Amino acid sequence: MSDPRELVDDLTEDLKRWLPEQRWFAGKDRPVTGVRPLGVTELVSGDPQLLHVVVEVAQDDRREPYQLLVGRRTHPPEIASTSWIGAVGDLNAYEASGDLDVTGVLLDLMAREETVGSLVFEHEPGVELETGLRARPITSEQSNTSLVYGGQYILKLFRKLTPGKNKDLLLHRALQGVGSKHIAVPLGSITGDLDGEPTTVGMLQQFVSDAVDGWAMATTSVRDLMAAPELHAGEVGGDFAGEAERLGRAVAEVHADLAEALGTEPVDAEELERSAKAMLDRLDTIAARVPELAEHAPKLRAAFEKLRALPLDAVTMQYIHGDLHLGQVLRTVGGWLLIDFEGEPAAPVEERHALRSPLRDVAGMLRSFDYAAQQMLVGQPDEPALAERAHEWSERNRAAFCEGYAAVAADPREQGELLRAFELDKAVYEVGYEHANRPDWLGVPLASIARITNGGTTP
Ligand SMILES: Nc1ncnc2c1ncn2[C@@H]1O[C@H](COP(=O)(O)OP(=O)(O)O)[C@@H](O)[C@H]1O
Ligand SMILES: O=P(O)(O)O[C@H]1O[C@H](CO)[C@@H](O[C@H]2O[C@H](CO)[C@@H](O)[C@H](O)[C@H]2O)[C@H](O)[C@H]1O
């Protein structure tokens, strides 16, 4: 076999074509102009061969590091066609996260706490990991790639890397340290090297096999309501309000746990000014790309500018989830769990690590209840009765969530202006997200912005 680094050099042209086709590739807005290997580590030698690869992807003047698992063998394994990268000589090179024959090694290395090249494999203190398990990738992968080992463990391989300790791992460890009931237990990690800085490239957690995600549950409940036109939201068998209330409690408990583990800070006038400016800047950037947002800009600006005049004791800053929505919560037999503490995928690393008001997470969940209800109307002819029922579901569950939160912490509804500004800021972000990813859904956040800025109710 040739030098692994040369192999990646030989694949450069194939990778330029292949990377933008991947779901997790974050730079689909412009062509890839160059790919350069930063680190190549052989984890399995022979045929098949498994390489851990970090490449720097150039897109004009933007340079970003990505993590890949590259497999190489003479006889191709049965994996998705999108995994094929190219051929080098008479060997096939492919993205190997779907290759059951080779990915077991990642767990085994963590169990034995080995170091291979610049990769450090560790388990959490006191944890004993089973070895020899085969891994299957989960199909609902999003910004990253997750492998499930024997229905017991889930390993998330971070795709776009940011130097240093990953926020997802940092917060899971902190929450585990204070005994939080609402996370999947962190069990291990893989650390690489990026520009000389130890950098988290993987996180192993307990896999919760009985989990259903909140989005699936909530949208089922909305469908039940739509199918029973003679009943109100509270009378339908699939009513979600009890779950929404429990979820509100769980989120408040996680906030309290994060505050206990990592502390809080009072807000100062400069911070309020920075927040208002960030919201106004985000609005300007997205309105320049999405003309439909521009008509709402004056009212949005007025809502964001009100932040500057808030009393300082109204806000406390702490670590928060940062991108909380119904797809980031799992219902298990034991209660609700929160997952994926990385923050908004598009936000720069320093912003994700900044202390924030926990009301931002509350606003994220409130937006998500609205989404669950409104997405049922996407592509349907205008029908006021259906729209009314969607609104009824949303209001009922938003209120129930706030009730649950208020049973553990201060009632978020007492901070109406702040909550409104956070909801609107999230909706502006969503306009940008939908415009880039799901243009059919653009009307969902736009309708909410119109409703909220026209004095529509918040719970
Ligand atoms: N501990 C877990 N147990 C069971 N399923 C999980 C667990 N963690 C994540 N998942 C599933 O994997 C999916 C992706 O996880 P997530 O952390 O959101 O990854 P990404 O960063 O790629 O968005 C989730 O939507 C959920 O369905
Ligand atoms: O889960 P990610 O961290 O990748 O978050 C991104 O994608 C989400 C969609 O998958 C997006 O969430 C928006 O759509 C959800 C329904 O699909 C809805 O529940 C959320 O409220 C809404 O924000 C999220 O904004 C984006 O960062």
Description:
By secondary structure, the protein is α+β, with helices and mostly antiparallel strands. Helix content is 39%, strand content 22%. It has 14 helices and 17 strands. It has a 7-stranded antiparallel β-sheet with strand order 6-7-11-12-10-9-8. Strand 11 and strand 12 (197-206) form a beta hairpin. It starts with a helix and ends in a 6-residue tail after the last helix. The protein binds adenosine-5'-diphosphate (ADP) and the ligand O=P(O)(O)O[C@H]1O[C@H](CO)[C@@H](O[C@H]2O[C@H](CO)[C@@H](O)[C@H](O)[C@H]2O)[C@H](O)[C@H]1O. The site of ligand LMANGFYV has 14 residues, from helix 11 and helix 13. It comes from Amycolatopsis plumensis. Residues 18-99 form the Maltokinase N-terminal cap domain. Its EC number is 2.7.1.175. Pathway: Glycan biosynthesis; glycogen biosynthesis. Belongs to the aminoglycoside phosphotransferase family.
